[in-house]
Amino acid sequence: MGNIDSICRAIEECGGDPIVSNKHEEFELASRIILPGVGSFDKAMQNIDKFELKPILKEQVLEKKKPLLGICLGMQILAVKGTEGGETEGLGFIDGEVVLLKPENHATRIPHVGWNEVHFEKNSPLFNNLQSGRDFYFVHSYHFNCEKEENILAITPYCGKFVSVVNEKNVYGVQFHPEKSQLAGFEILKNFLDL
Q1: What is the pLDDT of residues 129-140, one digit of tens each?
Q2: For residue 114, what are the β-bridge partners?
Q3: Mean pLDDT score, 17-46
Q4: C-alpha–C-alpha distance, residues 111 and 193, integer Å
């Protein structure tokens, strides 16, 4: 849903050859999978179900171990469930649920829109050539509440703090938009392509 063209252009800039598809045979040809997303959790999962992508993604990612990168809403639907638009089952690739950001005070705006720091909690090949604390571009109202600390790769100081990068084996998710985050964002995409 949403920002597919800008993701494709960014991937091309980073040396990749993107295919936009919901066809099983094209997933077979792919070496990596990116789940972009703008919109709501419930609508995204309706689209996943409509195009019967859940079994394809489970086969390609969980069984064949192809690297997956979820971006923004694409990261959120990696969770077991989300609350946006009513409680909805997610893909369940990473334990946790997606809930509304809670403002600390009246000056804190929701949705969270704009540049903010991403602080690395763990080392990851996704962060090669990047320093912790770099700014990335965000647009979201919900955040991923991880069940396990080990799945948290980075946090961002907003509404207290929220998880901004997740990981479980070959599954990665970033809450920010790397395709709109200039050089730092492109470095994330290059690192993903290098996995």
Answers
A1: 999 999 999 999
A2: 138
A3: 93
A4: 30
39 in Cβ contact with 98 (< 8 Å): no
| Rounded percentage of the chain residues whose pLDDT exceeds 90 | 91
pLDDT at residue 4, as a whole number: 87
SS3 115: strand
Give alpha helix (H) positions in the chain: 4-13, 24-29, 41-50, 53-57, 73-76, 182-194
Question: Which DSSP string corresponds to 51-68?
Answer: TTHHHHHIIIIIIS---E
CATH topology for the 4-194 domain: Rossmann fold (3.40.50)
| Cβ within 8 Å of residue 167, ≥6 positions away | 94, 124, 126, 151, 153, 173
> Smallest Cα–Cα separation from 101: which of 147, 172, 187, 164?
164
CB atoms within 10 A of CB 22: 13
Residues annotated as catalytic are 72, 177, 179
Using DSSP, state whether 47 is helix, strand or coil: helix
CA max distance for the chain: 50
- Token pair in block for residue 54: 């859940």
Q: Is the pLDDT of residue 39 over 90?
A: no
